[in-house]
Amino acid sequence: MSISSEEMKTVLESLFIKYSFTKEQAEILARIHTESTIDGIFSHGINRVPVFIDYVKRGLIKIDETATPIASMGCMERWDGNLASGVLNALKCTDRAINLAKTNGMGLVALRNTNHWMRGGTYGWRAAEKGCISILFTNTIPNMPAWGGKENRIGNNPLVISIPRKEGHVVLDMALSQFSFGKMQSLDLKNEELPFNGGWDRNNNLSKNPKAILDSGRALPVGYWKGSALSMVLDMLATLLSAGNSTYKIGLKKTETALSQVFMCIDPSTYSDTDFQENLLNEIIQFTHDCSPIKAGTKTYYPGERTLVTRARSQKEGMQVNTKIWQEILQLIV
């Protein structure tokens, strides 16, 4: 069914207020979930709302808490999320990293004891809009086998890198599984298969069936052994810098909460050659664009380019939302 952005924001704001968020917090949460949906990231936008509310009802997300600083040294800080909303915590820490970067050229905030930040790209876009490069990542519950193993021992630890650009920001937003669990959920809702193998089924066979992979809970690391190694390194960095929980410790909780995250921002305007920087970015993008596609009618894209196309289409035509999910959200308000 088609839903306008205004209708979605209005409904979600009412829902979050019902579950005791302040009007200001509810407005922010509604806007972030709507923006993710507008950009085509249904899995961490509208589709994630029922799970978010379930965490609130179970007391896993603390309504009355907020992230607080606990240690500072120059342009680096540690914060404690106090199990508050992952979105509100991530926005706060992104803004703090931006402010540190504007003062020092670079800023880093390491956050512990937080909850799922939903779409990681949200914070990359935010940093880019403020003129900052960003490198952001989070650990997760164990949901992938380390390469060569059977049992889940590593997380799909999403990584975000953004670069501000006048003609369209460059924003890489990727989980370290071949497909995010949210993407697999979205395809399962539409009874569609994955275009490539995305994980193992219960019989230890690589599969394109999203339901089989979701049932087994065993996603395939992107780049096979390379993605496995990168997942471990990001987990180590997030854990060490925040002095928080590792993927191993999160797994002991049986529910994905008390995560560790890193927000690093760089202000490229610290150098005086911003026009030169812009030319360099455009040169790289043009070189990538200027090639013959394998399939007629297609093209290559820089990270974030297709998001801008989807955003423009959604704003014009509305968002095609899964009817089952929307009805579930409406029932939560009653």
TrEMBL record:
<protein>
    <submittedName>
        <fullName>2,3-diketo-L-gulonate reductase</fullName>
    </submittedName>
</protein>
<keyword id="KW-0560">Oxidoreductase</keyword>
<dbReference type="GO" id="GO:0016491">
    <property type="term" value="F:oxidoreductase activity"/>
</dbReference>
<dbReference type="InterPro" id="IPR003767">
    <property type="entry name" value="Malate/L-lactate_DH-like"/>
</dbReference>
<dbReference type="InterPro" id="IPR043143">
    <property type="entry name" value="Mal/L-sulf/L-lact_DH-like_NADP"/>
</dbReference>
<dbReference type="Pfam" id="PF02615">
    <property type="entry name" value="Ldh_2"/>
</dbReference>
<dbReference type="InterPro" id="IPR043144">
    <property type="entry name" value="Mal/L-sulf/L-lact_DH-like_ah"/>
</dbReference>
<dbReference type="InterPro" id="IPR036111">
    <property type="entry name" value="Mal/L-sulfo/L-lacto_DH-like_sf"/>
</dbReference>
